[in-house]
Amino acid sequence: MGWNFKLHGGVAVGLGATLLLLASLTWLPGALPLTDARWLVAAIFASLFVAFVSALVRLLLTGADKHAIWLAFRCLPSKVQMTLGALALWGVVLLAFSTATEGNLQAAEVRDGRYVAFDTTPHTRGMVEISQRHYQDVLESDQRTMFAIPGVLFLGAAYAALTAGELRRADGAVVPSDIM
After folding, report:
1. Is the pLDDT of residue 46 over 90?
2. What does R_g of the chain's alpha carbons equal in angstroms?
């Protein structure tokens, strides 16, 4: 496998693990100091777009079917497979717990000294006033989702990049025979 596939996959795994760690830190008491960092959200999604789209293009250019892609992933070193699998499981469990405990409130903000959030409960959709405690909980839940979803998608980009590299390596190892 070429070094650029390894670099692409390694960067995607690193960014995915970092985002999952940040999402896990939201379970600790208190909010992360990243609540108002709009530039961080833009940076995460811009880098995710570049990493994910380029990994999918690399995988599509191999022309392999789903079975060949799975076999190529199985040809990766076992440590790489276990790392990707463990991180993906961590991300899915984190998202499942986050979704189960999140409730119907989202997008908390302070308006005129009052804490409000958007209530998504059927028949009562709209902004509702909440306590400061609920405000903190909604902020943490929003941060958890903001970090966990891109983290899992970065892991998907790493899977695609590393598998495409393995497919490319396997295709290069096949010596075409002269047919006459």
Report:
1. yes
2. 21
Instruction: Name the CA dihedral angle for 89, 90, 92, 95, rounded to a multiple of 10 degrees.
Output: 170
Nearest to 9 by CA among 103, 112, 106, 83: 83
Q: Is 111 left (phi over 0), alpha (psi -120 to 50) or beta?
A: beta
| C-alpha closest to that of 36 among 142, 113, 149 | 142
CA atoms within a 13 Å half-sphere pointing along the CA-CB vector of 117: 23
Residues 145, 98: contact at Cβ < 8 Å? yes
Question: Six-digit token pair at 152?
Answer: 């899992």
Over residues 30-37, the mean pLDDT reads 65
Residue 127 pLDDT exceeds 90 = no
Which residue, chain included where needed, has tokens 């995915």?
16
Q: What is the pLDDT of residue 178?
A: 46
Name the pTM for this structure: 0.80
